[in-house]
Amino acid sequence: MEKKEIIKELKQAFPEKIKNVSSELGDDTVIIDKDFLLDLIQFLRKKPHEYTMLLDLTCVDYLGQEPRFEMVYLLLSLAGKHRLKVKISLPEKDPSIQSLASTWKNANWLEREVYDMFGIRFIGHPDLRRLFMYDGFEGHPLRKDYPLRKSQPRIQLKKIK
Amino acid sequence: MKTRLQKEAGKDSLLINMGPSHPAMHGTIRIMLELDGERILNSEVEVGYLHRGFEKTCEHKTYFNLLPYTDRMNYVSPLINNLGYVMTMEKMLGVEVPEKAQYIRVIMSELSRISDHLTCIAAMAMECGAFTVLLYKMKAREFIWDVFEQTTGARMTTSYIRIGGVKSDLQPDYEDVLNKAIVETRKVLKDIHGLLDKNKIFLDRTRDIAVVTPETAINYGWTGPCLRSTGVYYDLRKSFPYLVYNQMDFEVPLGERGDNFDRYMVRMKEMEQSLRIIEQAMKKIPKSATQTMANVMEPAEAIKASREKKVEKRIKLSPNLEGSEQDKYQDIFTKNKKMVVPPKEDTYTSIEGLISHFKFFMHEHGIRPPKGDVYFAVEGGNGELGYYIVSDGKDKPYRLHVRAPCFHVMAALEEMIHGHYIADVIPTFGSVNMIGGEMDR
User: Fold this and answer.
1) Which residue of B has its CA nearest to A56?
2) Could you tell me what percent of chain B has a pLDDT over 70?
3) Which of A64, B153, B345, B417 could lock onto B326 through a cystine, CB 3.0 to 4.6 A?
4) What residues have CB less than 8 Å from A85, skipping those under 6 apart?
């Protein structure tokens, strides 16, 4: 696979679904709608593309803009030695997206982290709980409206009977 | 609130906690186990005990000021963490780094890799009861840290690799210290091979324990030595070459079975390759410009003289700034002056220097990359260490995300220890090299 071709090929294969593409600074990026995520992933995982690895999954909070959240998926093709970034915008009112936990096992923890930090809900996730913060923590710390120095009350120690 | 394991556990099985503070485990992580006798039926891993809000903190620091925070992620190889962040910024800013600085970066990141692997295997072997291995490895690590100390001024939290270059040039006698570290590390590696490779106790606890197939490893997003131990060839230094790695001759060791022993062996062999890279880099590194030591002025004297006319003489700097004198800048820093701290000689004695110094550090000035987002990764001690930075054109990152390699490896721990004995958790956990600071951020 030549490096720039994947973007062209995707545009040809799904002219209506791909909203935008760019390769700024050499990072090939595809912007899609959230309904198309699972289909695109299935397409990319197959030969000849073989984007078999989910390198990273994260979110960016653009507070004050609509849509507010942007999910960023980073895929790697070991055979083609190529990374592909997939971006999906999510509205503030309903920040939810299909879970990839059944496709990639590391998506389980990555999605839990994003749920913990941003409050994005992943539909179909087997065990959507906080990952880094504790149960009873209020709010989502990496959202831009969460203050840097906000403190929360300590959790009570359990009494042993 | 009940944990998942408590809800799912069978009536007759025993539930125990390993961690977050356990004498046989390094790093704060809680592993909850459901046991039938000593066999693990099910487990749940809980992380986040070392979460310090690294990403949130970085959003409130300038691009220059957040560099020391990157040291504190993987504290046994801080230089690679610096390198990952700095190279991401350089990709965003389009900065070219002089050749000498690139060689210094290669030497430093390979030394960090060795120090990382040494620490991993030392801890793993010690937890299996081989205390001698730990002591030998710590000895080798001391010699490597002597090189760090001499070059960067610090042993652990170095903040040495800066945007646009490196903080200071190598010392004139660095070759002696570095050669000594290479010789001592080789000796120790030979000793460790002798102590562990055919050791019945070590083999019993590592061979065919926690076997991971290549498919599983890829599905979990494994990278680095853990992925290579399963036989998958993926090394960023070869697949996406950065710095001067494409001019270096080295091999990428692979494992066959993907068990604990292979992860140990791959790390051991990688250290030998890293030593080879360092030796080649030492030969190829360009020599520094010769400096004139005559006519050295004290700073106070120079400041006084500068009020009347421009100071032409060399100014004596504080020992902390050794190696970052003005005439070294061409070797170690990019030509783009806006990206680097102006030389102290200029700051002390000229108004332009003083202004550019203030402009560099002042709020809403300094390094301001264009709008956009960028991902860049380097081969860290544990695998692909990637930084994803979103810039909104201001002097602070809008969002900074770190792809921590051991996060993905730890996500697989539950599956790895499934069906094994409690005692197998210890070498398995040791062999994957979990670094709390990097994983929990």
Assistant:
1) B403
2) 98
3) B345
4) A27, A28, A29, A30, A72, A73, A74, A75, B375
Q: Which of B324, B320, B311, B323 is nearest to B350 (CA)?
A: B311
In this structure, is the dihedral angle defined by the CA atoms of residues A102, A103, A107 and A109, taken in order, positive or negative? positive
CA B155 to chain A, closest CA, distance in angstroms equals: 29
Q: Phi and psi of B33, rounded to 5°? A: -120, 140
Cα–Cα separations (whole angstroms), residue A82 to A1, A5, A8, A105, A106: 9, 11, 14, 21, 19
Q: Which residues of A touch B (CB under 8 A)?
A: 24-27, 52-56, 58, 60-61, 72, 74, 78, 81, 83, 85, 104-106, 108-110, 117, 127, 129-135, 141-142, 146, 148
Q: What are phi and psi of B36, to 5 degrees?
A: -120, 100
pLDDT tens figures, B14-55: 888 887 887 777 778 888 888 888 889 888 888 888 888 889
Averaged pLDDT in 10-residue chunks for chain A of 161 residues: 68 78 82 86 82 90 87 88 88 88 89 90 88 84 88 80 69
- For the stretch A28-43, pLDDT in tens is 888 888 888 888 888 8
State how far the Cα of A111 lies from the Cα of A102, in Å rounded to an integer: 12
Residues 6 or more apart whose CB falls under 8 angstroms from that of B318 comprise none
- Phi/psi at B425 (5° precision): -60, -40
Residues 59-98 of B with CB under 8 A from A: 60, 91-92
On the question of pLDDT at B302 being above 70, the answer is: yes
Distance to chain B for A27, nearest Cα, Å: 7
Q: Which two tokens stand for residue A117?
A: 């930090």
Write down the ipTM of this complex.
0.89
Q: Tell me the C-alpha distance between B125 and B68, whole Å.
A: 31
Q: How far apart are CA A29 and CA A87, in angstroms?
A: 7
Q: Which residues from chain B sit within 8 angstroms of residue A134, using beta carbons? A: 48
Shortest distance between the Cα of A75 and any Cα of chain B, in A, equals 10
Q: Chain B residues with CB inside 8 Å of A143's CB?
A: none
